[in-house]
Design brief:
single chain, globular, TAT_signal, Sperm_putr-bd, signal, transport, periplasm
């Protein structure tokens, strides 16, 4: 994926994850666990004493008529989420999916913002949608904003959910990219894993990764080791020159340690195949597939945070500029903003919902995997993808090509 994915959470209110990916690196430092927990606690108290704010469904949307066209990541909108909405509203849902942010942007651009009513772009790619006028401002008074974890809602503003003083994107899901390993073949040292481990010749089995994000993770690791200080990769967002300096070193390292890499992935199915069919023992993956492997293998495959910090992303939902079914779009967003529906996504995808109160509806093994992965230290140490600067994608693709052709 070339426009990066796939924002902070509490262990009391789980926000679960899929895929996963444009500006300054300041906001991620402010997304501390303390601030998240403070915002979450407020919502938790409200839900205990009176329930979360009810979903807002307009009279027009309640009528048994209309349809809704959704463009989404493949593991965000599940059949039970659609069935419950259709039963409640009579609105027919048509779902189309995309494999990465470039695909999503291209399809909406081709339709000039029409053809689809709702889309789930990674917040890092928001600037591209704004510059092409592909989204419309959200009418916040028509949305059940009280159902979203308060700190998540506030942090989304810093990460790129607004444009020209108006909100265009609403938090939906968040997740991370870190390390999945086969514990039967690879040691699972608590707190000792590093992105550099993926590139070591002594690995007991082959490796899988996504080149575009692996180079960023290497830059983070080189900063952690003091070999290439970059203010924890904040410098990469400050200027193209510094970005290139970091990628020069990261790409050279990757080329020199390329021999163990067996497969390269760009989607969830490719991650699962790398471990199940291609025999990979360790890899840099999204958390959703990591959780799926954990559940399918009864704990043999484990998803872990490296010492440098997991790469964290936020995927919001927005209404396309040419949406033809506006009432239905608002109705479906409010459907998503209920804890039960948030948990449907979380339980089946392994990603985290931005809706407060989903923990009460999570399956036991999903909650177990989340708690094992997102410890206090891991949450404090997350590294957040920022909005892409204008030079970001083209430069990174240049270095990915250099690595792949080496």
């Amino acid at each position: 994926m070339t426009i990066e994915k796939k924002t902070a959470v509490s262990k009391q209110i789980v926000l679960n994850s899929t895929q996963g990916p444009d500006d300054v690196a300041g906001p991620r430092q402010r997304l501390s666990r303390r601030s998240v927990l403070k915002g979450m606690a407020t919502t938790s108290v409200i839900s205990c004493i009176g329930g979360l704010a009810p979903a807002i469904i307009s009279p027009q949307a309640r009528a048994s008529s209309g349809e809704l066209n959704i463009l989404s990541w493949p593991d965000y909108i599940w059949p039970d989420m659609i069935r419950s909405f259709e039963a409640k509203t009579g609105i027919r849902v048509r779902l189309s999916t995309y494999g990465d942010n470039n695909d999503a942007l291209g399809r909406l651009t081709a339709e000039r913002g029409k053809g689809f009513d709702l889309i789930f772009p990674s917040v890092t790619s928001a600037g591209h949608y704004y510059s092409l006028d592909l989204l419309q401002p959200l009418a916040e008074n028509r949305l059940a904003l009280g159902n979203i974890a308060p700190t998540m809602l506030a942090s989304s503003l810093e990460l790129g959910a607004t444009h020209g003083g108006k909100r265009y994107l609403l938090p939906f899901a968040w997740g991370t990219e870190a390390i999945t390993l086969d514990s039967a073949r690879h040691d699972d040292p608590d707190g000792e894993l590093s992105y550099l481990d993926l590139w070591q010749p002594e690995n007991p089995g082959p490796v899988t990764l996504r080149p575009s994000s692996a180079l960023i993770a290497l830059g983070l690791a080189l900063d952690y080791n003091g070999e290439l200080p970059s203010d924890r990769m904040a410098d990469a967002y400050r200027s193209e020159e510094k970005y290139r300096q970091i990628l020069d070193r990261a790409t050279a390292f990757a080329i020199n340690h390329k021999q163990n890499i067996r497969s390269y992935w760009h989607s969830t199915p490719e991650i699962l195949s790398a471990f199940a069919q291609e025999g990979c023992a360790i890899g840099q993956t999204w958390d959703g597939p990591g959780l799926t492997l954990f559940r399918q293998s009864k704990g043999r495959y484990r998803y872990r945070m490296p010492r440098e910090g997991g790469l964290a992303w936020l995927d919001p939902v927005g209404i396309s500029a040419g949406a033809g079914n506006l009432e239905q779009a608002y109705a479906f967003i409010n459907h998503l903003l209920t804890p039960e529906v948030g948990a449907m996504m979380a339980n089946q995808s392994g990603y985290n919902s931005c809706v407060a109160g989903t923990e009460a509806y999570l399956l036991p093994d999903v909650r177990e995997a989340y708690n094992a992965t997102y410890t206090r230290e891991a949450l404090d140490n997350l590294w957040w993808w920022q909005v892409d600067p204008p030079y970001w994608l083209a430069v990174r693709q240049e270095y990915v090509k250099r690595f792949m052709q080496a």
